[in-house]
Amino acid sequence: MEDKEYLCIIGPSGCGKTTLIKCIAGIIKPDEGEIYIDDRIVNDTPIQDRGIGYVFQEIALFPHMSVYDNICYGPFVKGLDISSAKNLINEILNMLELWDRVKDPPSILSGGAQQKTAVARALTSGSRLLILDEPLGSLDAKVRRVLRYELRRLVKDLGLTAIHVTHDQEEAMSIADRIVVMRSGEIVEIGTPLELYLRPKNLFTAHFVGEANFFIGDLLGEEDEGVKIDVNGNILYIPCKPSFEGKKVVLAIRPEFIIMKKTNGLKDAWRGMIEKITFLGSSLRFEVCTENDIMVIVKNPFSSEALGWRVGDRVNLVLSRDSLLLYPYPKEGLEKAISIE
Amino acid sequence: MRRQRAIASENVRLRLIRKIDDFSAKNLVKCAVYASSIIFFFTLILIPPIAGILENIGKLKTIYYDPSLLTSANLAIINSFTMAFTVATLDLIAALPLAWFIVRSKMKIVNFIDVLVDIPFLIPTAALGYSSLLFWSSQDGISRIFGMETLIPPGFALVLLLHFAFSYPVIVRVMVGELLTYREVYEVAARTLGAQPFTAVRTITLPLLKPGIIVSFLLAFARSLSETGATVIAAGNFENGPVFIFKNIDKVGEGALVYVSSVLILASTIIFFLIKLLAPSLKFPIKRAFPSIERKLSSYEVVKFRDGATILVFLIIVVAPSLFIALPVLSALLDGTVNEMVAGSELWNVFWRSMLISYAVGSISTLMNVVFGLPAAVLIARRKLGRATSIFKALVSIPIIVPSIALGVSLKFFWGKYGFIPEFWVIVFSHTTITYTYFVESMSAAIEGIPVEMEDVAGTLGAKPFTIFRRITLPLTKYAVFSGAILVFTRALGETGAAKAVVRTKEFQTLPVLLVDWIINKRATSSQSALGIGLYIISAFLVLLALRFIIRERRR
Questions:
Q1: B295 and B271 in a common domain
Q2: Confidence class for position B334, pLDDT limits 50, 70, 90
Q3: pLDDT by residue (tens digit) across A11-44?
Q4: Which of B62, B84, B302, B316 could hold B255 in an S-S bridge, CB 3.0 to 4.6 Å?
Q5: Which helix (H) or strand (E) holds A218?
Q6: What's the total number of domains in chain B?
Q7: Nearest 5°: phi and psi at A40?
């Protein structure tokens, strides 16, 4: 990790996100491997000496202490003079707008205020590395959206380094400098949100981050600067050359990069019929079955044109060539390769 | 033909259940069941001891005519509370680290230690008293290692060690339960903030475990305050309230007994409720941190030393004195005492009769408590008495607080008025009184654990009260019913104080009373006493084993 970076870890439930950060914090002892903080191996350093601020999924505010006592706990147990730590405490209380709740016991706070207190408590301990374990998981969607930007702002303003575990991809996309994708105890891919969304190097990432259509195809041969692929009788041209051996391939494309038209005779268009329409708020999601029995997901932004589509309408789908991603067919099969179980 | 008969009998059974169901749905029936349990509580559990003392309160003044008796009575009362307070405090200090070790340590020895903790529970207290006496005071015990005749003679110190041993498991068991349900994330959170393990425990874990600590302290306090049989054996010249009553019950006038009993009942009730009321507002010292000292106290070496010392104290002061009885029992098996027992003599005839009485008393009082205690537990758990539930709950807890021999004295006075009631039943009633709380409290806690919604859902599906109880509540609490019944049975079987107080003729002596009499009045040889105690322990152990086996089978 880079200094002052905001890193998000995402992955399906049980993939080892929390275990990984607990190893970093010293709560779990790893069976093997080394953990470095500031170029120093910390495997044998006890939790309290690692200098990590940890925000728990369960929030875990001390119920027998007031908000203020919770926030002062870090400086207090380190034997620091509270008056000397006061500047930092005041600054954090200001930033998180917690001044009017300082005397309250945690039990009467709202979920959002409890989470803010937990973050404040972790920050006042003076740690330069902040670990957040699904810190917004138990909050309402609206509060979550507001708090996630506040969190990033706070980390950046204070010049901290943060590791944030979440199962919410949107949350990770919106606040992370880089995202780590995990699966079955392993890191699958690391990249910026844009890289992971537009050019995922791994099939699992393409499936897990956002939504994607996957088609199994056969390489027909090279043509100009690209290759021709047969997907169940539909021929597609991709303007890039594969970096792998083998004829069987997987093509992936995000639903929003597929254009849906009524007009017939479009070049390389796939003909199909709308089977289902789902209203998603800012967009509409269509499930289209093509003439050669391929199910394609298409997403169109909310517009009068998109609202005009009906189930049973015959449509033509144009797949944006530049957005098509090409992968070798996985040995374990496509379904297993993208499975989140 | 056989099938038809089976179908017919099944039809009869279903018709009967339906009838009981319809019957149970009537408000009048529900009220009658609850009312009968309340009437049972007041007439058999609460009023007799209170009335017994109040009716005789006039006799209290006679003790003032005997200043030396008054002085020794007062001293005995003070000793009772001093002992109980000291024991509960020492037990808390010594047993909390063991509970910690059992829950947190990953060492294999933990399972073994966990089993050993229950030993003082399994051995009836009178037997434990004799075992401790032999271990600490006899030439054959630990004294031999030091080349002394008596390392710790009977008296204050021996009683302290004895009370420490039998109250110790109470604290360990309560605190193990508390630690298992404690959310360790608080402690980890404190450590991520820079707290040393010792600091995290001192400032976070212990304050959060305060309710459990108070409960375990009170239970140890009550156990020490109430214990009679073992204390009498180990007391020597030391006298606390129960020993005073035990020794003087047939010697002094009723005034002294009324005085000591009433003061013990009143003071223990007040102290118990005061601790319960004030302890939650007690603050742990969490306003200061001492990083460098606490870092040292959290070090590997100190933690290992603490664990080692805890286990050593446990083995030497709790386990060894409890198990020491095995040696004299073994020697009694080999020195011909068994042959004498098999041949039969007046001494052993009395022994077997007492054993029979003890088991009969234990069984009947258990049955009475289960039948009448169950509706009372439902009343408390489901708060069916509204605001009065808290008062009812507090009243139910009284018999556990009050020293059982003091309770026995007042029951002796109360039931003594009704000469037509056979002595056996007076003994049964008194044992029912002192064990009632154990069953009702454990049952109400179990019922509270079942979400009320489960019963409500059954109701919305058309089930009537009897079916809800039969198909939902009872299956989910069956284990608790059996556990509660075992608790009542073992408590009744081991009770010495109340049994001594209410028994009028030697024919109805229960086993612990008889054995204490054998030991302190030297009515039997040490071999005979050891064999008697051994048979007492073995029989209790076998019955417990059988009951546990039944529970396990039912659980399956």
A1: yes
A2: confident
A3: 998 899 999 999 999 999 999 999 999 889 999 9
A4: B62
A5: strand A213-223
A6: 2
A7: -120, 130
For residue B89, which of B274, B216, B182, B175 has the smallest C-alpha distance? B216
The interaxial angle of helices B254-278 and B404-416, nearest 10 deg, is 130
Q: Which residues of B touch A28 (CB under 8 A)?
A: none
Written as six digits, the tokens of A230 are: 């047969």
CB B205 within 8 A of CB B186: yes
Q: Which residue has the tokens 């006493």?
A: B529
- A161-165 vs A129-133, strand pairing mode: parallel
B332 within domain boundaries: no
Interfacial A residues in 45-104 facing B (CB < 8 Å): 46-49, 52-54, 56, 58, 60, 62-64, 73-74, 76-79
Whether B478 maps to a domain, the answer reads: yes
**CB distance A156 to A6 below 8 Å:** yes
Query: Which tokens sit at B447?
Result: 């019922």
Would you call B218 exposed, middle or buried from its count of C-beta atoms within 10 A (0-12, 13-18, 19+)?
Answer: buried
Count of pairs with CB atoms under 8 A, one residue in A, one in B: 69
Q: Using the 8-state DSSP alphabet, how is residue A329 labeled? A: P
- Write the CATH number for B227: 1.10.3720.10
B345-366 tens-digit pLDDT: 889 999 999 999 999 999 999 9
Provide the chain A residues 121-180 that lie in CB contact (below 8 A) with chain B: 121-122, 125
Q: What is the ipTM of this complex?
A: 0.84
Taken in order of first residue, the domains within chain A and their CATH numbers are 6-203 (3.40.50.300), 213-338 (2.40.50.140)
Q: Are residues B52 and B71 in the same domain?
A: no
